[in-house]
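Human:
I keep going back and forth on a fold encoding question. Comparing notes only helps if you start from a blank page. Show me how you would write down a chain together with its backbone fold. Write it directly below this note and I will take it from there.

Assistant:
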Amino acid sequence: MPSTRVRPVAKDDVADVVTLVHELAEYEKAPEECHLTGEDLDAALFADQPALFGHVAELDGVAAGFALWFLNFSTWRGVHGIYLEDLYVRPAYRGHGLGKALLAELARECSRRGYGRLEWWVLDWNTPAIDFYRSVGAVAMDEWTVFRLTGDALTGLATHAGGARPAG
C-alpha cells in the first residue's frame, strides 16, 4: 500500500511546488500566463509575516500534489476563512486520495483557527474537479461573477486622476 502524507511546504519543496504550479498552468491551458519562480514562491511563503501558505501531498516520498492558500475575511460572518488559490495533483498520482487529503487538511486548519469557510474557484470546463469538489460537499456559488483588474486596466485605475486622494 502506498504511503501518503500531507504536510506544510518546506523550503526544500519550493522547486517541486514551482514545477507543479507550471504543470497546473499547462493543464489549465494557460502556460504562457504562469511566471512563478522559485524566488517568488520562497519570498511569499517564508517572509517574516507570510501572506501565502502551502501544503504538499506526498506519495511514497514524492511531491505529487500541492495546495497554496491565503486568508480572506467574511464581513458577514465576522471571521477569516481560507481562500484556496491552487490545488493540483499530478495525473499519475490521482486516485490515491491526495486531493481529498489536501482539502481535509485545509478544513482542519479552518477548524483549528476558528475560520468560517474554505473557498476556491474552478474552471467551468474542469468537470473532473467539479465532480470531486461536489463529492466532498462543496457548493458552487453560481450567483456570483468574478471580476479582475490586471495590466493596463489595473495601472489605469491606480493612476486615475479623479476621486479621493490617498492619505498621507
In short: The chain has a mean pLDDT of 95. The chain has one domain: 4-158. The two ends are 61 Å apart (CA to CA). Residues 4-158 form a domain with the Aminopeptidase fold (CATH 3.40.630.30).
